Amino acid sequence: MLVYPCGLDVSSRSLTVLAARLREHRRQIGSRWRRLPVGRQALLVLAHLRNGTTYAQLAAGFEVGTSTVYRYINEALELLAALAPTLDKAVRAASRKAYVLLDGTLLPIDRIAADRPYFSGKHKKHGMNVQVLADPFGRLLWASPALPGAVHDVRAAREHGIVDALTEVGITCWADKGYRGAGGTVRTPYWGRWETFSTGQQAVNRSHAKIRALVEQAVATLKSWRLLRKLRCSTNRTTGIVQAVLALHLASSA
């Protein structure tokens, strides 16, 4: 296998935060020697998350075994996921905002047609449903645990307790038609055919679309970590990966 140098479009703060967490973890468990120092392990993990680099490629590039790469990545993911904010914490932070934006996104996975629970009829592909909260400027605030792709957005929002949490603090939430009937403080556009709407209803829907469009920036932020664009791991690991990416993003933008 050929090896070549490669750059990562990731903030140096992400590397610093992850390396510090790994260093503290090694100190706590009394790990005296590793094939890679914490800085190199952190770089390996970032390359996997940001570029979707495979275990075999990382093993060749960092001159370690594939099983070592697997252990290093799993260790880091667990540490990062523990740093991700809970929904309650995210909502408390969002309560200082004028409003929040809510949207769901599908993270594609490598599954066969028989895996019906993971098939999204909306997107016509297999994947995992992740709910995203953003501030009025489209900045990512929180990402939910992953559910099978067949789960509808409004059902996912209810299962995660998003609607109840936002209603409890009284913060307005703007969402698309997929959240029709959510209730609480969730605001959705008028439902029906455009030609049947009154002039006022059309104006409201246009205004609504402009406000909630910025949530796409938060979704794009999440998927800028290329591993999430096509997951080839167990679906049980999806939530941990999402939470790890969220923790890294928030740490680098703090």
Polypeptide structure, described:
The chain is of the alpha/beta class. The protein has two domains: 12-81; 87-232, no CATH class. Helix content is 47%, strand content 12%. It has ten helices and seven strands. Strands 1, 2, 3, 4, 5, 6 and 7 form a seven-stranded mixed β-sheet that branches. Helix 3 (55-62) packs across helix 4 (66-81) and helix 5 packs parallel to helix 7. The two termini are 39 Å apart.
How would a crystallographer describe the biggest sheet? 7 strands, mixed
Low confidence ranges: none
Helical run tally: 10
What is the radius of gyration?
20 Å
Number of strands: 7
Task: Report the mean per-residue pLDDT as an integer.
Answer: 92
What is the number of domains? 2
End-to-end gap: 39 Å
Shape verdict: elongated
Q: Structural class given helices, strands, pairing?
A: alpha/beta
**β-sheet strand percentage:** 5-15%
Instruction: Give the ordered list of helices and strands.
Output: HHHHHEEEEEHHEEHHH
Residue share in helices? 40-55%
Key traits:
254 residues, alpha/beta, 2 domains, seven-stranded mixed sheet, 7 strands, 12% strand
Briefly say what this structure is:
The protein is built from ten helices and seven strands. It has helices at 12-29, 38-51, 55-62, 66-81, 87-94, 153-160, 162-169, 199-212, 215-223, 238-253; strands at residues 100-108, 119-120, 125-134, 140-143, 147-148, 173-174, 186-187.
